[in-house]
Design brief:
The protein contains 13 helices and 17 strands. The protein has about 400 residues and is α/β, with parallel strands linked by helices. It folds into 2 domains: about 5-30 and about 300-410, Alpha-Beta Complex (Aspartate Aminotransferase, domain 1); about 40-300, Aspartate Aminotransferase, domain 2, CATH 3.40.640. The strands form 5 sheets. A 7-stranded mixed sheet has the order 4-10-9-8-7-5-6, with helices on both faces. A 4-stranded antiparallel sheet has the order 13-14-17-16. Strands 1-2 form a two-stranded antiparallel ribbon. β8, α8 (about 210-215) and β9 form a beta-alpha-beta unit. α2 runs antiparallel to α9. The longest helix is centred in the N-terminal third of the chain and has 20 residues, at about 60-80. It starts with 5 loop residues before the first helix and ends with a helix. The protein binds pyridoxal-5'-phosphate. Pyridoxal-5'-phosphate (PLP) binds near residues 93, 125, 199 and 222.
Length: about 400
């Protein structure tokens, strides 16, 4: 059943040898952030100790070397998702990537009465930036329903997409674990003339993404959720859309020239994208090292990762779904789920469940997971979420299931 060598992989993650509360750590909060392999940490250390220089600035050789690594990282990320390098904008997080689209596209293209769609399973990272910008522009911002079994409600979408200018939705839900059918959403969006912003934050760590095949317009994801350093997000922009976009953040690096007129007002011209959207000093060390994480994932194989993590998820899902007094959320079809399980245990709130598991060394997340509308739709305040990754084991999944069984049986 095991399609990758977990014992071998675990040696690259020393944190997994740690004890917490007298128990060996079982880290199941991977949807929040993943652990980092020694290869990534060593590369970061090497950059800071031996290569550190700001990028795109001076002409000295050290700076040129750092700039080269930075641009090679852009090329690597582009290859990883089958995009062109100029379609890759480095930001601080997936969240900042969505903000960039909401402002640089939304402020310049949305008018009073225009419609922007999100789905009730969207993360706050895609809802709130468009909430702010549609507010500025007097545009509507409307949620698309989800079905009781955890899918986007395609009938509601077909209805609401008429007249919409853009839709945001998650490729993989960070609570329901649903792998959304991107092509069906894109088809309806195209028929309606709406753009598509795909939130790939929970799918990029698990599956091979090809932006050309997905046929989407914008896509975001975060390095820290896929073994990479923090402070690095990726925004993919289909390159012909740059023509429709204005500026977002202003500052150094994103300009071609800054001067002033006789009356002392500034005159600013901008660099070409993607640099136009990378104002100020980026997280250049972390960006330069991000390819090490991507290569690590590729060396395992994205298909192997999905298959393995999905099998861990399925162990926990099936055992919890059988229990009276436990409600498990999201699709019941294994092939429609990614690598996490969200649930509630009758008689306990989600934080009590997380604290109980924590006392056994198991780190899971509890709360609304930045999906307020989804929790409202599910009729709950919070949920407990166990999310798996490449270094988790079948034994860990079985152990957590047994702990919940014990909790239920009192
Ligand atoms: C589905 C989804 N979208 C967006 C985000 C935001 O990611 P970040 O906090 O790295 O910007 C998250 C993070 O949990 C997420 O799960």
């Amino acid at each position: 059943m095991c399609s990758l060598d977990v014992a071998y992989i675990r040696r690259d993650f020393p944190i997994l040898e740690r004890s917490l509360n007298g128990r060996k750590l079982i880290y199941l909060d991977n949807a929040a952030t993943t652990q980092k392999p020694v290869q990534v940490v060593e590369a970061l250390k090497e950059f800071y100790l031996m290569r550190n220089a700001n990028v795109h600035r001076g002409i000295h050789s050290l700076g040129n070397e750092a700039s080269k690594m930075y641009e090679e990282a852009r090329e690597k990320v582009a290859r990883f998702i089958n995009a062109e390098p100029e379609e890759i904008i480095f930001v601080r997080s997936a969240t900042e990537g969505v903000n960039l689209v909401a402002y640089a596209w939304g402020l310049y293209n949305l008018d009073r009465g225009d419609k922007v769609l999100y789905t009730l399973m969207d993360h706050h990272a895609t809802i709130v930036p468009f909430h702010i910008v549609t507010g500025f522009r007097g545009a509507e911002h409307i949620g698309v329903e989800i079905t009781d079994d955890g899918y986007i409600d395609m009938e509601d979408l077909a209805e609401k997409i008429r007249g919409a200018k853009i839709i945001t939705f998650p490729h993989v839900s960070n609570v329901l674990s649903t792998i959304n059918d991107v092509s069906s959403v894109v088809k309806l969006a195209r028929e309606a003339g709406a753009l598509v912003l795909l939130d790939a934050t929970q799918s990029a760590p698990h599956m091979k993404l090809d932006v050309k095949r997905l046929d989407i317009d914008f896509m975001v994801f975060s390095s820290h959720k896929m073994l990479g350093p923090t402070g690095v997000g990726v925004l993919y922009v289909r390159k012909d859309l740059y023509r429709e976009m204005g500026v977002f953040e202003g500052g150094g690096d994103m300009i071609r020239s800054v001067s002033y007129r006789d009356d002392y007002t500034p005159v600013v011209t901008y660099a070409d994208p993607p640099i136009k959207y990378e104002a100020g000093t980026p997280a250049f060390a972390e960006i330069a090292v991000f390819p090490v994480a991507l290569e690590y994932l590729e060396s395992i194989g994205m298909e192997n990762i999905h298959r393995y993590v999905n099998s861990l998820m399925w162990i926990l899902y099936t055992r919890l779904a059988e229990l009276d007094g436990v409600e498990v959320y999201g699709p019941s079809r294994r092939e429609d789920r990614a690598g996490l399980v969200s649930f509630n245990v009758e008689g306990f709130n989600a934080h009590e469940v997380a604290a109980y598991l924590d006392s056994h060394g198991v780190a899971i997340r509890s709360g609304h997971h930045c999906t307020g509308p989804l929790h409202k739709r599910l009729g709950i305040e919070a949920s407990a979420r166990a999310s798996f990754y490449i270094y988790n084991t079948y034994e860990e999944a079985e152990y957590v299931a047994s702990l919940i069984e014990e909790l239920v049986s009192g």
